[in-house]
Write a structure and sequence with these properties.
The complex is a heterodimer of chains A (about 475) and B (about 450). Helices cover about 25% and strands about 30% of the residues of chain A. Chain A has about 475 residues and is of the alpha/beta class. Chain A has one domain. Chain A has a 10-stranded mixed sheet with strand order 2-1-5-7-10-12-15-18-20-22, covered by helices on one side. In chain A, strands 11-13-16-19-17-14 form a 6-stranded parallel β-barrel. In chain A, strand 1 and strand 2 form a beta hairpin. By secondary structure, chain B is of the alpha/beta class. Chain B has one domain. In chain B, about 20% of the residues lie in helices and about 35% in strands. Chain B is built from 9 helices and 22 strands. In chain B, strands 1, 4, 5, 7, 8, 10, 11, 13, 15, 17, 19 and 21 form a 12-stranded mixed sheet that branches. A 10-stranded mixed sheet of chain B has the order 3-2-6-9-12-14-16-18-20-22, covered by helices on one side. In chain B, strand 2 and strand 3 form a beta hairpin. The longest helix of chain B has 17 residues. Classes of the chains: A alpha/beta (about 475), B alpha/beta (about 450). Chains A and B meet through strand 21 and strand 22 of A and strand 21 and strand 22 of B. Strand 21 of chain A pairs antiparallel with strand 21 of chain B.
Amino acid sequence: MAATQQTVDAVREVETYKHGWETDIESDMAPKGLSEDIVRFISAKKEEPEWMLEWRLKAYRYWLTLADQEPDWAKLNYPKIDYQDSYYYAAPKLGDGPKSLDEVDPKLRETYDKLGIPLLEQEMLAGVAVDAVFDSVSVATTYKKKLSELGVIFCPMSEAIKEHPELVQKYLGSVVPYSDNFFATLNCAVFTDGSFVYIPKGLRCPMELSTYFRINEKNTGQFERTLIIAEEGSYVSYLEGCTAPQRDENQLHAAVVELVILDDAEIKYSTVQNWYPGDEDGKGGIYNFVTKRAACRGKNSKVMWTQVETGSAVTWKYPSCILQGDNSSGEFYSVAITNNRQQADTGTKMIHLGKNTRSKIIAKGISAGKSNSTYRGLVRMQPKADGSRNFTQCDSLLIGDQCGAHTVPYIESRNPTAQTEHEATTSKISDEQMFYCQQRGLNAEEAVSLIVNGFCKEVLQTLPMEFAVEAQKLVGISLEGSVG
Amino acid sequence: MTKLQTTTGQVFGDTYADAVGALPGAQETWINGMRKTSRALVGAQGFPGRKVEAWKYTSLNQVEKVPFIPAAKADDVEVSSLPLGIPVIDGALKMVFVNGVYRGDLSDSFADLGDGVSLKPFADVLKSDPSALKVVLGSSAEACQSFTTALNTGFMEHGVVIHLAKNVVLERPIHLISIGASGAEPGAFHPRFSFSLEQSSSATVIESHSGLPGQAYLSNPITEILLREGAALLHYTIVGEDSDAFHLGRASVTVDKNAKYESFILSLGGQLVRREVKVSLEGLNASAIVDGVYALSDKQHSDITSEILHLAPNTTSNQVVKGVLGGESRGVFQGRVHVAREAQKTEGRQLHKALLLNRGPEVDCKPELEIYADDVQCAHGATTGEMDQNHIFYFLSRGIDEETARALLVEGFLDEVMFNIGDEAVRETIFGLVSNWLARQKIAAVSGS
């Protein structure tokens, strides 16, 4: 892990560096802690225009007023986070930005290969454009040219701020405003990078867009900001996947994802998250506080969130849909697997504003070891949501008698013509199922993997092919050591 | 927060406490302690705001503004006979409380209920034999867990203490009738009902909460129930408060090995009603049924909040709550089913269904499962919506007019839960109350549908 060694060296440099860092734009890492200077530093580092800096500062100042309002309602237990004990900016050492894969730092490429994401192979075989984010800075973007010919903009957020300020100014913060919640506000102030996608009117994006996020810097909070805009009648499928090398210290992650969907447009957003969950005793692991929201602004607009959450020590994530346009629809498919001492509190929000809006929630929670997994979701029918429908199904599976599975739905209806349905069950893998599998020569672990995959099938099959395969393997790997 | 504190300070603070005056049982340090702690809790925390998760959907703003006086001290209230409209349960033994105070003159005699049955006014027990209360008082209704309990415990004085000895089967249902009535000033009262049923004993208890029109009043009753091994209790609560009244009530139930608790809550009347019920299934094979129906109109607000704790193996709970909402009413159902690690082989079922009759009402529902044991079967369901147009069409096609069709459908919707009421006399009374309610409503079609 030469790249890691390099960053470790960078950390050491910074830690011994006492004065004058604020103006040192050449430094690849800001010192620990959060202050207005750090916000300015990040903004300067990104060569951002004045309006962006102002927005960040507004968010930062607001965040200061939220000091005692860190959300504590989730069924999560973690030591209080010292926000001054984290790094808010880290960039891999790079010269000029690479224009093609060949120009990417070979050491970084090596790291990717070890993680099993051969960029070249993906470019050739999978037809997937990859905007790889390595410690907050995008280092390679493939297929960009091909996409730009179609009018698709797919670039790092930092580039979009410079190249397409009119779009960014129009949409950034329009779905998740800077004052939304504690973690989103923090993100607004210190976000380092992310993806920006713009699909022009009437275009069906010919390839699946994909970003792999990595956290690879010791003690660095990662603050991604993603914005996807689907113009009238367009379609895009976006994939987000995460892996992280083993770490001993808890890492903070507070991402924000905003989706804007206009008339007749559709976004399919799929996530596989398998960040380091900590070891068997719960030591280390990522803290994942994510705000994801889709605004179905137009008529017949559609969004589909699919998530497979197997990683992180703490997951706090509620991808939401604001169904504003008439006949718009939102779907949420989720598999959350927790093992050892992992904790996940995840779910969705479906806010029905427009007429005949539809939402569907399928959430599968699997708890093993000493973990706790919670589904927490809100379905709200506003007075004007005539003829709207919601269907929610939450199933929990418990493996072992030391774990917990919880379901906390909130259902609010203010329209008589709107219908909501919610059902939830909790059970365990039956002895009969295990016996049946083992009788046919599977060992206990394989049997559990098979049964759990069956339990999650409804969700997994909504994933794009490449992801579905990876996700199925992940389900098995995540539950290793939970039986026998 | 500070603002809240001062208002509570005014409403249930020193002035109120002074007006309440010396309460029986004050010579007992533990009772005194309970009252003091509870008053301090109410004073320090104030009325729970919307940010308190348990009160997310029920705002006490309206209650907070009213300068209540202790209803028992109001000298301009006279209730000399049982008002009309009090639910009648055939064959039941009546115990009447006016503004929380036991009224022997309006109640049936309970002197000769037989061996092993003891029925005493709470205030008498507080005066003469407070140590008898030690077992049940505060055993399950902890002030620190609920604002409703804290408010009651701080000012508890009247009520009833019922004790059934081992193997006693009380055939006659006991009907506790609470009547609220304010004079010139709005009054508040805090009755305390305490039941303990020893091994294998059984009883049926009905609580009905009604009131007289006039100034608003606040009824704040707490029921504490202790069911020993193999005991069985049928417990029915009928809330039909006056349309201006507030009701903050709670039942806390402890269920031992093989004991059964069966309950039904009917919430019909009152400006703001919150019924809390907490059932702790503490012994092997303990079981509970915690059903309910609410039917609301105008600007009524009704909240049923339940907590069912499975703390021992092989415990069972079943809950069906249905609501019908008209006018601009608001219905709230919050139900938590908790299964502790050692409560293996638990079965928990919960269902909430709400029917919105027109534009205007709001229903908020939060069924919650919290499960720490793996070998369990737990499920919950929740639906909200309007009547099925196909069902109405079925009636219309058979020559039944729409209004009748809708009334029949609402009745059918609620019947499903009410049929499960174990006591026949109570079932009939509740059916009667619900059809009266229906007759008063104009269940017209939803505009625009």
